[in-house]
Amino acid sequence: MEQKRNLGNMIISSFMLLISIIIFFIIIPTQIQNPPQVKSIFLKPTFAPRVFTILLGVLGLILLLKAILKRKVGLFKEEETEEAYGDEKYTFEKEKLAIFVLFICVITVILINYIGIVVSSIFFLVFIMMYFGQKRWLLIILVSVLVPIILFFFFHELANVMLPMGRLFSLEGLI
Amino acid sequence: MIENILTGWQLFFQWQVFLFMIMGVFIGLIIGALPGFTVVMAITLALPFTFYLPPVVSIGFLLGIYKAGVYGGSISAILLGTPGTPAASATIIDGYPMSKKGLAKKALDMALYSSVIADALSDIVTMIATVQIAYLAVKIGPVEYFAIILFSLTIIASVSGKSVVKGLISGALGLLLATVGMDAIYGIQRFTFGNINLSGGLNIIPVLIGLFAVPEMITQLQERKLHSQKATIMKVKKMYDSQLNKITWREFKGTIKTILRGFIIGSFIGIIPGVGAAPAAFINYNRAKKTSKHPEEFGEGSLEGVAASESGNNGVCGPTLIPLLTLGIPGDKTTAVLLGALMIQGLTPGPILFQKHINIIYGIFIAMLFINIIVFFAGKLFISRATLVSRVPKEILFSIVFVLCMFGSYAFNNNMFDVWVMIAIGALGYMMMRFELPQAPFVIAFILSTMFEKGLRRSLIMSKGDFSVFFTHPISLIFIVLTIATIFFGVWGRKKKIITT
């Protein structure tokens, strides 16, 4: 477990170091223009982003060095136990599920443009409840229809928030 | 003052005031408890209903929503691991682990007691010393502001958990992401990539929801798929009914000092416009952890941790009205709406308000005190029902939470972009969770980053680039010394711990 954590530390610290380099040398110079009349470095708009990026990079480097040192000094048992490897398949399964759930969330948000937030939410609720093991059909239908409708009523009628109804249900979609 | 209190009492003691305060409290509790919904939204929606009400009724109604809403944020923080309000972010650190152990009722009770006590005490201070405290608020300028925020940032190490480096990385990410948008001093676009939606920066609500709700939803759904949840529900039911879920007098006595400290810190932070309840919650949490007899329990489900965060954030409620009433300075969006409500009633904040309408002001203060009593009873009623949430199957509960968050993120600015921000930050939040980067430092840094930068740059503009200004202003010097001392003793304490082990 400790070895896996160390590997995780090496990955995340390398990633932070890499993005801080990209942000500092590429993104900040292209994305932020300092007004020419500002002379003091502390008052320039780039000051805070640069400081925070350097901080991120330095901390990433510290974590990376700590992880490399730990690995080199050999603070782990050489033989890895079955428990440690037994976990490996499990975590990959977890990552697949995470990506899947995020994918469904993204699809739901994309669909809002076409079918509106209410219908999109209904599909999301039905799909997630069914996929993750809910077997009671009446409950699935009740929850997935009532929740979006109640929210629609609250936001649209009470709060006067114009919710996205999608091309299908808007005037543009009908023409 | 006694005469003012008596005249205020006459205005307060009417059935309409009680009716609207109770309504306000229930609305605030529900809105505060729902992730994605904001107290500002609730107060703004309620504002038109107050046009034709007398001043004490109107302001009492809105204050009921406000105070109950601030407490209500802790309900979803404890039960769902998602803060209902930014101020409840600190409550998650210990409240949610308690809930996972089946001690949700205990955590909710503690949150209620500490919120009500700290809020009531700060209301008394507001009533007694409004004008005097206003003079102190005036003395706090950009220099002092920067020093207070700098001190607040040292909390990051305290909420970092086992790895300070990882906590600081998380904090650095929060600081960096908060720079997205228009630069506050010169109006230069930063990290917007030509996207107009990013000009205003990343909004706090979609960021908070994304950071907490989305990873939690993913984690809970993973658990649902890979483990049986029957065992979990049975365990929760057993714990809920057990004696362990009740706060003993001894446990409560152990948190009194923390609650009193929370009221003091919250009151001080509350009088400074623009800082808000979240920093107060985290500062008190930090202090509680440092002075606790069991600091190792913090982050794992400490009752003292819950008391610290809730007393800190609710201690802000009363004093936040002081700059509003005395100087007409609203500290945040909520008080800005309250300013609007006062003006609709013909009450213009400032010295004249205290000369011509002192009876109405004291009527409002008395209403504030009574609201705490209503929040207590309403909260108890809520808690007895709210813990049923832990019995709802995860695939139902967390999918509903996501839909709530989607609606809430959109409604914040009527913008689909905020929903995308929620999902993107959600993916980031999940990655942080998997690599054990703590979320709390990210939140503190994100909230404080803009204030930190603004305070620094405004101070340097005022002093024409002279850094000694931070050492020549007494309040600023005190906070800088406190910051250095906190860092020094923090590092020394850790080194000592390593040497002894």
What's the SSE blueprint?
The complex is a heterodimer of chains A (175) and B (501).
Chain A: H1 2-31, H2 47-73, H3 82-131, H4 137-158, H5 166-169, H6 171-174
Helix pairs in contact in A: 1-2, 3-4
Chain B: H1 2-12, H2 15-33, H3 39-46, H4 55-80, H5 89-100, H6 104-138, H7 142-153, H8 155-158, H9 164-177, E1 181-182, E2 189-190, H10 204-226, H11 230-241, H12 249-270, H13 277-291, H14 303-314, H15 321-327, H16 333-344, H17 351-356, H18 358-386, H19 394-413, H20 416-434, H21 439-462, H22 469-472, H23 474-500
Antiparallel strand pairs in B: 1-2
Helix pairs in contact in B: 1-18, 2-4, 2-18, 3-4, 3-16, 4-5, 4-6, 4-16, 4-18, 5-6, 5-14, 6-12, 6-14, 6-15, 6-18, 7-21, 7-23, 9-21, 10-19, 10-20, 10-21, 12-13, 12-14, 13-14, 19-20
Write a short abstract of this structure.
The complex is a heterodimer of chains A (175) and B (501). Chain A is mostly helical and 175 residues long.
Structure commentary:
The complex is a heterodimer of chains A (175) and B (501). Chain A has 175 residues and is an all-alpha fold. Chain A is 78% helix and 0% strand. In chain A, helix 1 runs antiparallel to helix 2 and helix 3 crosses helix 4. The longest helix of chain A has 50 residues. Chain A is flat and about 60 Å long. Chain B is mostly helical and 501 residues long. In chain B, 74% of the residues lie in helices and 1% in strands. Chain B is built from 23 helices and 2 strands. A two-stranded antiparallel sheet of chain B has the order 1-2. In chain B, a hairpin with a 6-residue loop joins strand 1 and strand 2. The longest helix of chain B has 35 residues. The chains are: A mainly alpha (175), B mainly alpha (501). At the A-B interface, helix 1, helix 2, helix 3 and helix 4 of A face helix 9, strand 2, helix 10, helix 19 and helix 20 of B.
